[in-house]
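Kindly go through the following sequence and its backbone structure tokens. Advise at your convenience whether the structure tokens fit the sequence:

___
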Amino acid sequence: MTSIGAPGSRGIDYRLLAPLMAHGLIVQTLTGIIRVTTSYRVLELGLPVVWLGAISATFALLPVFMAVLVGRFIDRGHDTLAARIGSLLVLMAGLGYCFFAPGATWILGYTVLFGVGHLFLMASQQMLCVRVAGDRDRDAVFGNFLVISGIGQGLGPFIVGWVGGDSKIPDTSFLFALGAAACAGAVAVSLLLPIAATRASDATGKTAKPLRELIGIPGFIVILIASIITITAQDLITIYLPLLGTERGIDSGHIGLVLTVRSGAAIVSRLFYVALISLFGRAPLTIISMSLSGLAFALLAAPLPLFAMYVDAALMGLGLGIATTLSLTSVVDLVPVEARATALSLRITGNRIGQVTLPFAASIIAAAAGAPGVLFVIGASLCASAGSIGLTRRGRR
């Protein structure tokens, strides 16, 4: 992994780092299992493909309105408590999926609960990464955390593919049971996360920064838009690749492995994250990574042979791995200390807005043009966002 041994303004808190890494791994694994399995349950029930977009949007709906409040809560020093709340919420949803999810309405309800729990988890884990180390080690800490997260993102779909084997639709009941067990593990590990010695608001001695001031910080909106597109793209590939597999007669085992390859490539890219920033700089690296992932999405829309899908997934993972990491660390670098959780929550708000609106648009495209149409539009959006960053950078010059 990326070295985090360089001296900073303060040392690395390994008592926090170890359980944080374990918690991140478990959370991403259970998220991959549950979200991919949810797509297969929709197909298993014979529901129209529009339901895939509706369920994906439901996951993000409440967090759109709650994210800033959660960020303010965490900025008051409640990062560990937020992680525990999120773990309990996803456990409740996981048990619901496992024991009583007979129809679309129940799946929608559990997805709402799961989405709120996921919001608490993402916002808290990002701020716990900030608390782990000083400024000099922060990029490396985030890089390592996202490597661990990438392993989880790959492990979840791999488990789904392994259970599914050569069947078109895997055993969703068994997979939901595995997801619930992982949720219980997340609760257990969250209890090992140490509570902050001092509250963030006490340490800074400053009041909460107004949202309009955060939004007005130069470069913030550009990074926010890039974050929305990259995170939504990462989310939609998980939702719509199973549909692509069913349309093209590809078994669930291969679809799970393709998603695993994408996640594995993202892990590789994040191992070299700090070195790549030093080599290219933040803005150029953002443009390169978003363009690469956009082209990979567009190419996947073509009728590729299976081996080419694996190669394309690797390119997609390399691009998205760097782009998503940059959208996170750039926000932390832009804003003052006392508003970091709020700014990260604004980022989550933007991401969730994208996850609410774009899946509906994607479901309409899928109904008309199938999964390839969705993938092509995602690719075009990524390339357009990369171009916007380039134009903004040139305008500032």
